[in-house]
Amino acid sequence: MMKFRFRRQGTDPHRDRLRHDLFAFSKTVEHGFPNQPSSLAYDPKLRIMAIGTKSGAVKIYGAPGVEFTGLHKETATVTQMHFLPGQGWLLSLLDDNTLHLWEIYQKEGCSHLEETRAVGLPGRPGFDSANCSPSITRVTVILLKSACDVACLGTEGGGVYFLALPGLTLLEEKTLFQDEILQSVPDDYRCGKALGPVESIQEHPQDPSKLLIGYSRGLVIIWDQTTRTVDHLFLGNQQLESLAWEHSGKTIVSSHSDGGYMVWAVNSSCQKTQQPVRSTIPYGPFPCKAINKILWRTCESGNPFIIFNGGMPRASYGDRHCVSVLQGQTLATLDFTSRVIDFFTVQGTEVAEGGFENPRALVVLVEEELVVIDLQTPGWPTIPAPYLAPLHSSAITCSYHISNVPLKLWERIIGAGEQQSPRLSSATWPINGGKNLAQEPTQRGLLLTGHEDGTVRFWDASGVSLKPLYKLGTANIFQTDCEHNDSLNQAGEEEWPPFRKVGCFDPYSDDPRLGIQKIALCKYTAKMVVAGTAGQVLVMELSDEKSEHAVSVATVDLLQDREGFTWKGHDRLAPKNGPVAFAPGFQPSVLVQCVPPAAVTAVTLHSEWNLVAFGTSHGFGLFDYYRRNPVLARCTLHPNDSLAMEGPLSRVKSLKKSLRQSFRRIRKSRVSGKKRVNANSPSSKVQEANAQLAEQAGPPEVEMTPVQRRIEPRSADDSLSGVVRCLYFADTFLRDAAHHGPTMWAGTNSGSVFAYALEVPSQEKFSERAVEAVLGKEIQLMHRAPVVAIAVLDGRGNPLPEPYEVSRDLAKAPDMQGSHSMLISSEEQFKVFTLPKVSAKTKFKLTAHEGCRVRKVALVSFASATSEDYAENCLACLTNLGDIHIFTVPGLRPQVHYGCIRKEDISGIASCVFTKHGQGFYLISPSEFERFSLSTRNVTEPLCSLEVSRLQDTSCLSNNFTATPKLPQANGTHVPRSPEANHSPADSDRSPEEHQAAFSPGPADSPNSSMENPLDTTGDITVEEVKDFLASSEEAERNLRNASEDEARPAGILIK
């Protein structure tokens, strides 16, 4: 009578070894654009670029696949970064006035990034300066000398200090104070005022011993370090922002706070220059904003490039974020949608004396994206980036991953994407340093992201770099304000300044109803379903030719004339009348509009049966897109489910109403606790049996199960109980054990599962006969927990193949001889039922054991790292605590669990998507995906090398310094996994017989065996309510007789 778990006889070493070969957790790489970038650096010799962020992250990029990531121990903004060219060292300055030296070093054939030294500088109120030289103050600007031996630090106090590299020790004898400079300044210029903070330090391009130093007040000097004298004075009167040399060293250019720049001649005959050669305010004459940075680059073809950011007319365009490129009479005002952080040009590393720099490209880092402009092609087009794409160009609303994409589909998607952007430059990516050592991806992976503006973006997720392939727009199908905006943009093309929109970050959506909620794609037929916020379901097909056609519209009423419900949310999107022009790519054929137009919560596609199923908070529907007619509509609303009628964009719900509902629920829970139960009802008998079992004591020699949490059944009238959470197609046994056929399954928020038997005609008769759906079974989970996923397993316990996989010999045919089973994953537990009887086989109560709820699940194939032929199908589950648990199927035996996402990161947990081969993605910021691996074998991580030529003796770095190993990050910047984590010392010593034994689990330890997960040991007995609508009357009587016999039998192990 008592349920208990027998004590196990120790662990199985074979299974432990096998588990080690299958499962290993690591965060491998971050895709997308760094969140909140704050600084930029470039190494022209190694051709690599670094981006620092406000959270203290350092990310270095070279050729595609060459990536390094580091994280400062302090969570502080990286305000400046500078490479020691060719050395593989990077100096970073944080806003807490600390300097940090990073080293790219070689280990086991691969390059790694590590922080090797840090020094604190006083300069902020309250900063502890006990361990530092008191003469150093707040750093404003840094210059690394070309010899890579000294760093020059300009400060707020106007002093310039010098640090020896790479030891970061202060060279006090070289310090330059303002007093020394002021001795050379004329009395009438001094006027008793300080020179202000150091704004810029630049090394003379032809004479490294000379420094160009600019002060905030406007004074610019050339300082000779060898003689410690002022070589030249430029007596500027306008507040200085930045300085730049012309390559020959005969000219300098200064930019100022009034939006102007001045060109000064360096004349060796006289020491003082009072007037510039040229002074101009490019966007004057009205007051302009400051030009924050300016570059001068010589060009063989004629006029030099003058590149600067800022300088916009303050009144009319003061809110614009611009970088201006000026060459002779040609001016382009590059207009970005977010703030400019920094920029640099890419040119040849060695320029001969008297030669030209000839910049190839301009690289601009703005707050939300990186844009590269080709300066050698007329018109200065944009060079497409192979990485650092702004995933959040419009906010991401959903994600979908497809593994093993066929080559033909892959090429067609790439072709459609190339035709979308003909104005892009064909120049090669200029930041191409380092060598990617990672193996070529064995299969093509496609990541699809749905966005708030109604677009779906296709990304190449096969390797380390996430590369954009194609963008699908859905807004042009509907009547929105898009056309009006386009006409406004065209009207402004001839105005002054000559703005040119660059970049793709556009956070503004024309209509929030356009937002994409769900995506489904068949990789074999190139059919796709995209569903949105206003109940729109678009069936699309990939076409290589442009087309102009009308989109068929069908309406499906999910309320089914249910009385007492009035939709109070947003209206549906109005489709355009008449033909619509479509570019090559995915083109819509049918628009299915759900009524009411609530957001679509689930969608699935079966291209072999020409069916698409979709669900909202009101019900679900089935649509035949071949014949273009609805097959089924079912309302899932509970009579009290009023919240479902308000919609996500409604403002109807008031605080008063919310409080009233809360008090009603509290009162109801108190009253229901005191209600007298009917003694003859089945539920009262179950409760009585549970109480008796709980009071009994078990035998002394058995080990009792750990205390489990008590899970209260949810109320049937909870708000939003009718939300459809999952939909699933399967060819399985629903009517009886002898005949299988097409079925559709739907799971809801209230723990209901609906199973429909489908009559699908053969492919030759699609046009003659309509698809029919008959309700087969209705299952109500006892605790009414939301159903997260449904899957059918064949007789061998394997998931059923996708449509067309078997007919095209791409997958093994499912076992139709043995009995099928159905896996239902709810928020609280996993349960396997036999089909067609729907009797419980085994289960695992996650909430009771772990105190967490299921958020995402997926069936994943894990391949062994040591045997090519062995793989297991498992269930991967992400919980609301951010943990990932892996279970065998159909045995539901727990294998491993890992902490992956911080439990506070709700958006990260909600955005997680698993791949079919043991990897996954989740958003760590609006613009970045973290990629992780659960598989020992299937890992995508940066493996690269960078050849550096060190000029300095690095022995000083090893003295008195121990690198602090970083702790694994629960979120954010990942920590590369060590190679040792993948390999057990015992693996290499394993004999072939041991290998065979490890890959041949016994019957009691097989992942397909339900014996390995003993049925639950709690002292309560519950059963699922199953209604069978297909059983004959004789079978129903037989089932009823069997059930009564079971009740009379003594209680054994029962399934909850």
TrEMBL record:
Chief place where the protein resides: cytoplasm
Residue windows of the WD repeats: 446-460
Polar residues composition bias: residue spans: 678-690, 1006-1020
Annotated segments matching region Disordered: 670-691, 962-1056
Keywords: Cell cycle, Cytoplasm, Exocytosis, Membrane, Phosphoprotein, Repeat, WD repeat
Domain Lethal giant larvae homologue: 280-381
Record's GO cellular component terms: cortical actin cytoskeleton; endomembrane system; plasma membrane
Signal peptide interval: none
Biological process, per Gene Ontology: cortical actin cytoskeleton organization; establishment of spindle orientation; exocytosis; Golgi to plasma membrane transport; regulation of establishment or maintenance of cell polarity; regulation of Notch signaling pathway
A Pfam family assignment: LLGL
Domain called Lethal giant larvae (Lgl)-like C-terminal: residue spans: 734-971
Gene Ontology molecular-function annotations: GTPase activator activity; myosin II binding
Listed SMART domains: WD40 (SM00320)
Family the entry assigns: Belongs to the WD repeat L(2)GL family.
Name the record gives this protein: LLGL scribble cell polarity complex component 2
Species annotation: Apteryx owenii (Little spotted kiwi)
